[in-house]
Amino acid sequence: SKHFFLFYLYLTRNSGLTRPVQGQSSCPKDRLGRKRRTVVSSLTEDEELTEILKSYCSNKVTTTKYSFLSFIPKNLFEQLHRFANIYFIFLAALNFVPVVNAFQPEISIIPILLVLAVTAVKDLWEDYRKHKSDKFINGLVCEIYSRKRQMYVDQRWQDVHVGDFVRLSCNEIIPADMLLLYSSDPHGVCYIETANLDGETNLKQRQVVRDLPRQGSELTPENFHSRIECENPNNDLSRFRGFMEYPSKARVGLHNNNLLLRSCTIRNTETVIGIVVYAGHETKAMKNNNGPRYKRSKLERRLNVDVLWSVVLLVIMCLTAAIGHGLWLRNLKDNSFLIPDTTSPALSGFYLFWTMIIVLQVLIPISLYVSIEIVKLCQIFFIQNDVDFYNEYMDSRIQCRALNITEDLGQIQYVFSDKTGTLTENKMVFRRCTIAGVEYPHEENARRLEVYKEDEALGCSHTLKSRASAKSLSCKSLSCNRSSVSLHTLTGHSEGEESPSPTLPQHSAFSSPMEKDIVPDPFLVQKLNCLSSPLFLLRDASMELTYIVDFFMALAICNTVVVSSPNQPRHVVRNIVSRTPLKSLEDIKMLFQRFGLPRFSTLSPPHTTESPRSFTRRLFSRGKAASILSIKPGEPGADELIYEAESPDEAALVHAARAYRCTLQGRSLERLLVELPGMGSLAVRLLHILPFDSTRKRMSVVVRHPLTNQVVVYTKGADSVIMDLAESPKGAEQSDGRQGHIREQTQKHLDNYAREGLRTLCIAKKVQTSTEYEIWLKRHAFAETSIENREELLLESAQRLETNLTLLGATGIEDRLQEEVPETIEALQRAGVKVWVLTGDKQETAINIACACKLLRTTDQLLTEACKALLLELRAEVERGEAAEGTSGFTLVVDGRTLDFALQEDLKGDFLELSRRCRAVVCCRSTPLQKSHVVQLVRDQLRVMTLAIGDGANDVSMIQVADVGIGISGQEGMQAVMSSDFAISRFKHLRKLLLVHGHWCYTRLANMILYFFYKNVMYVNLLFWYQFFCGFSGSVMTNSWVLIFFNLLFTSAPPLLYGILDKDVSADTLIKLPELYKSGQNSKAYLPSTFWLTMLDALYQSLVCFFIPYFAYAGSDADMLSFGSPINASALLIILLHQVIESRTLTWLHVLVLVGSALFYFSFTLVFSVVCVTCSPPTNPLGVDKLQMSQPLFYGVCALTTVLALLPRFLFHALRNSISPSDTLKAALMDQLNPDNYCRRMQHWNQTQAQSKARGLIINVEDLDIKIPDFILPKELKECRAATGSVLS
Length: 1289
Description:
Blueprint: H1 2-13, E1 36-39, H2 47-54, H3 71-79, H4 83-94, H5 105-108, H6 110-138, E2 141-146, E3 151-156, E4 165-169, E5 177-183, E6 189-193, H7 195-198, E7 203-207, E8 227-231, E9 242-245, E10 251-254, E11 259-260, E12 265-267, E13 271-278, H8 284-287, H9 298-331, H10 345-359, H11 366-384, E14 399-400, E15 414-417, E16 429-435, E17 438-440, H12 443-451, H13 464-471, H14 478-481, H15 513-516, H16 522-532, H17 543-557, E18 562-564, H18 585-596, H19 612-620, E19 642-644, H20 648-659, E20 663-667, E21 671-676, E22 680-690, E23 698-704, E24 711-717, H21 719-725, H22 733-755, E25 759-768, H23 770-784, H24 790-801, E26 806-814, H25 821-830, E27 834-838, H26 843-852, E28 861-863, H27 871-883, E29 890-894, H28 896-902, H29 908-916, E30 920-923, H30 928-942, E31 946-950, H31 956-961, E32 964-968, H32 975-978, E33 982-984, H33 989-1027, H34 1040-1050, H35 1053-1061, H36 1067-1072, H37 1078-1081, H38 1088-1112, H39 1120-1142, H40 1148-1171, H41 1184-1188, H42 1192-1219, H43 1223-1231, H44 1235-1252, H45 1275-1279, H46 1281-1284
Parallel strand pairs: 15-27, 15-31, 27-30, 28-29, 29-30, 31-32, 32-33
Antiparallel strand pairs: 1-8, 2-3, 2-4, 4-13, 5-11, 5-13, 6-7, 6-12, 8-9, 9-10, 14-33, 16-17, 16-26, 18-19, 20-21, 21-22, 22-23, 23-24, 24-25, 25-26
Helix pairs in contact: 1-6, 3-6, 9-10, 9-33, 11-33, 11-35, 17-18, 17-20, 22-26, 23-24, 25-33, 27-29, 33-35, 33-38, 33-39, 34-40, 35-40, 38-39, 38-42, 39-40, 39-42
C-alpha cells in the first residue's frame, strides 16, 4: 500500500538524522543523570514518577535540519565549512575595499552567490522531502489507553509518551519501543516482521513478560502497578536488559524477546498490548539511523593537494605582480600621467597584491566542486539503471548509498570477500550426515542436487514488490490467515470453527524446493522404521537407535524456527488425541532411558506405578494441561508447514529432520510439538533457549523430555567447539570407549565433508539430574535479572551448562557457488586485484570452496602454516619460489588462531610481506572482529585501495573499515546492505561494477578535473602576462562581465559532458580484457606528473594565445578592450578544441554543446558591445567586439593562435599513440575493427598476455562448472567464440 511504501521510504531515505532539532521535539535531558531508566504506568498518581516520565523524549520525530527561520543562517553556516566558499566570499568582500578593488564590486559576488544558491536550493528540497515524511509518520494513528475515557482511543504517533499503553492489531506498525504485556495468543506469543528495520522478512517470535499475572481476557491498564527498570536508550538492536518488579517485590528479567521495536510490523497475532519504554529519537530504530555514508575518495584527496598547489601558484603570481608594481613605481621618472598620490611604492605593491588576488581568483576553480557533484550524481544514475545489475528473482537492482566515491571503484587493489552468501548461494541444503560414528552418504540426495533445477515456472516466487504489497493488507486480509501453528490449551468445548480462507501463495525464506525436498538415506530410513514396526521390541533396539532418535530430535527442536501453515486460520485448532502405533509405552520409555541416564550404569526400565495405557492417557489426553496440536491427514495444511528460520542452516536441519518424519509441528512460549516416527506427536516442554553467539559458536535448548521427564540439553555448533566439549561422563568405561570411537569416526567424516566443501555442524546432548539443574537454574536466573554485565553473566551461565556433552553426530550441508563466481574471480585477478576470502568455516571447507571458485589453481603451492616460528621460513620459501623461473604462485591459508598471532604488533610486518607475495589469501575460522582488523591492517600498512564485500551482520565491521564496502542483499537480511556504500544482489555483478563502471568513473572524473585545472590556469595566465605591459597595475584587457562569466558560463558545460559521457573503451572490451583495469589502479589518468605536464601545456598555450595577438596588433591604434577581444575569442576556441583532442567520444551531443558554448560566447559579447554603455565602468565596451568581429584580422589571429597553441599537444598524442600506444588505446582501436579482425586481434592479445604471465592464469571455459552467459556480440563474433575461449569467459 501507499502508506507502507512511504513508511519504508522514511526508514531508508531519511536515515540521515543529524538531530540538531531533537531538543525541540520534546526530548529534554535527563536532569537526574540516571544510569537506568525507570518506567511506570502513565496512569500513576505518584507525582514524582509522573515527573520522571515527563523527562523522557516524546514520540514526535523530527529529521529535518532546518526551520523556516533558521534555514538561511544555518545553511549558510554549513556551507561556510567549505574552504573554497570562504575563500571566494573573502575575495568578494575584498573587492568592496576601494583601495584594492579590481572591478565592479557587485559583479564579483555573482559567482559565489550562484554557487551558494544552487547548493541551498538542493538542501532545501531535500529537507522539504524529510519534512513531508516526518509529518506523515507523526500523523499515523494507533490506539492508546485514555485515563479519562477508560478505553483505548485513536491517537497520533507523535502523542505517544513513555508509560502509555498501546494496543495494536495484526499488520499494524509498532509506533515506539514497547514492552510486551499481553498477546491474544493464549501462551503469550507474538510474531513480528523486522523488514522495515533490518530487511529480514522471516518472522521473529516475541513473548509476554514471564510470570506476568493473568488479568482476564485482556490486560487492564488500571490494574498494572509494576515498575520497570531497564537500560538507557542505545542502538543495540539485539540487546535489551532490565527487570520488572511486581507489587509483591518479586522481580523477573526482561530480554530482547520481550521488546517490540519501533517500525516492526505485527504479524499472525490478532491483538497485542504493550507499555512504551522508549519513544521518538530514543527508540533503537532511530538510534541506528546514522545518515548517509560519507567517505573521501582517493581522487578527492589528490584534488585537495593540487588545489593547494594552485593556491601556491596564485600567491607566487600575485607576489610577482606586487613586487613588479613597486619596482615600476620606484623607477618611474615621468609620472605626469598619474594621479598625484602620496602612497609609497611598497604600500602600493601591498595593495596590488590583494588586487591581483581578486583579478586572478579564477585560478582556484570555484565551479569544480559543484561540477564534480553533478558528474558523480550522473555516474550513479547510469550505474543504478544498468540492466545487467537487475535481479529478476528478487526484483532488485544495485543501490548506491555513498554518493561521493564512485571513482574509487576504478582503483581497487585488494578485494576481501566473505564466503557464505557472498561467493555461495546461502541456500543450505542437507547433503549427508554421520550418527554414532556411522556415515550416511545420502547418494540419492546427492544425485538430486546434481541434476536439480528449480522450477521457475511455478509463478509463486513473488517479487519484492508483490511481497510487500501482500504484507500490507489489513488484519482481515489473507496475510493474517498465514498464521503460526501455536500450541493451545483448549477447554472441553472448543471455539466455533471458521472456514479457512483461501490464501495467496506465500514466500518463506530458506524454503525453496531444493532446500525442502530432501531424499532420505535408505539405510537410515530402515533403522528408523524399526520404531514403527509392529514387531519392534525393546530387546531389538540397539544403542545406535537411541543415538539416531536423539539426533533427529535435536535437529527438530534445537532452533528458533517459527512454524506456520498457509491454510489454517489462527487460533482454530482441534484438540485431537494422537494415536501412537507403539504396543507398549514402556518400550519407548525404556529406549530413551537407555541413552538418557547420566551414567549409563543401568539399563533397567524406569519404575512407574502407572500402566502403559494410563500413562498414554495422561500424556496425550490431559485436556488443559496438554498443549497438543494435531493435523488430520488429508486436511488442508497437513503437510504444508512453513518454517520461518532466522538462518538457512536452521531451516536446512529442520527440513532434514522432517524428511525422516521427525517433524517440528508447532511452537509456543513454553512448549514444542514434535512428531517422531512410531511415536506420534509429543509435546516437549521448553525450559530455556541459549542462543547462538560468535563467542560460543553454538546454541542449545534445555527441554523436559516428554517421556523420561528428564532435563535434557541439546546442543549444535561448530565442530571445533563441540568436539572439545564432547567429554564422556566419568565412571562409564563402556560408554567412554563408545564415545571415543564415535568422536574418532565423526572427526574423520567431518574432515571428508570439509574436503568436499560442505558446511559442518556437530550435534550433542547432555542429561542433567534435578539437583544439577536446580543449581544451574539459580545462577542463570540471577544472570537474567541483572542489568549490569548481563551478557557476560549469561555467557558464563551457558558455558557452565554446555560441558561434558555426549556427541551424537554431525551434518554436512551444501552451499552451492553462485553463478559466474569463478569467472568473476579470474577476471579480478587478471585485472591485478588480489582477492582474499575471509570466512568462519573450517580450513578444509574454505580451501575446497576456494578451489571451486578458481581462487586457487591446481598448480598453486599452499602455505597452511604461518605461526610465529614459521613466518620468516615461509617468507623465505616464497622468495625462493619467486626467484625460480616458471614457478607457480603461492596461496596462504591461515586460521583464526594464527591470525591472532599475525595481528600482533611485532608480527604485522612479516605477515603483510608474506601475504603480499602470495597470489591469494584464505583466512578461515575468522571472527567478525578479525575480519575488520585484517582489512584495516592491509589498508593502512600497504596504503592500497581496499574493497570488502559480504552479506551478513558478521561482515558489517569489515565493510565499514574498507575504502569501498559492498553489501549483498541475500538470505541473511539487510544489515550488510545498510552498512555498505554499494549494494548488489549477486557476486558476479562485482565484475562489471569494477571493470566497467569503475574504470569509466575514474577516467572520466580524473580527466575532467585535469581539464578544469588546465582551462583555469590557461586563462588566468593571459591576465598575468598583460601585467608586464601595464606596469603591474592590476588592469585587465577585457571587461569584468566576460572575465567572470568566462569560466562560470562559457566553458562550464563541455567539461560536465566530458565527465559524464566520455568513453575510452566499450563495456564489452573492458569485460573481455580485465588487464585494462590496471590503469586505474596505478592512477595513470591522474598522476602528479600528469598534473604538472598539464600546467606546463596551459602555460605554453597562454603564451601563444597572448603574444600572437600582441604582435599582430603591435603599432596599431587598438585600445585595451580591442586588444583583449581576439585574446578572449582565441582562448575560448583553444579550450574547446583542447577538449575535442582529449575526448575519446564525440557524438552529436558533444558537437551541440561545444558549438553552443562558442555561439553563446560570441552572441553574448556581440550583444553586450551593442547595447551596453555603462555596464563596465570605467571602461566602455560599446561597439568594441562588433568592430573587431567585422575585421578579417580578428579571424586570422584567432585561427593562427588556435592552431599554434594546440599543435604540440596534437603532435604529442600522434607520436605517442604511434610509437608506444597504451593498452587502453589498443583496446579502443579494436572496438573499431570489423568482427573478423576483432576476433583475431582479441585472440592474439590473450596469447601475448598468457605468455607474459605465470602459467595457469587463464582458465579454460570447458573446465568451469557454471554456464557462461552470452555477451552481446555481432553474429560474426559469436562464431569465433570457441577460438577465443577464455577471453569471452
